[in-house]
Amino acid sequence: EADVVQQLCDSGVVVIAAGGGGIPVVSNNDRIAGVDAVVDKDLASAVLAIDINVSMFLILTDVDQVSLDLGTPGERPLLTMTVEEAQRHLNDGQFPPGTMGPKVEGAIRFVRRTGNRAIITSVQRVASAIAGLAGTEITP
Known about the structure:
Layout: H1 2-10, E1 25-28, E2 31-34, H2 41-51, E3 56-61, E4 66-68, E5 76-78, E6 80-82, H3 83-91, H4 101-114, E7 117-122, H5 126-130, E8 136-139
Parallel strand pairs: 3-7, 6-8
Antiparallel strand pairs: 1-2, 4-5, 7-8
Helix pairs in contact: 2-4, 3-4
């Protein structure tokens, strides 16, 4: 459905897509079968963003920035991370599954495939984040 989403975007339509749900399937011996799983909206959005070749991938969430050591006295918000840094922190368990993990993983996938900007921030900080003054940008 990426072609339809692309056509709608090109026509100036605000498109809401890949917002979770869907039917998780796997390919097995040239057959498609349903599986017990959840389609993650952040990872699905990254796939769609890659497929329609967007120039910037914004992931909006309820925090202004991604932080290391979240909820501890040593919490450190991050303005930028390279893909390698983000992957290392993800592997180290800094971004748990079901919370920030899929957002960071989606941003990593997008940047690796496109070389374009990925930003994680809150709705309130979008304009500042695009200007590089807020949010967390994942860079190549």
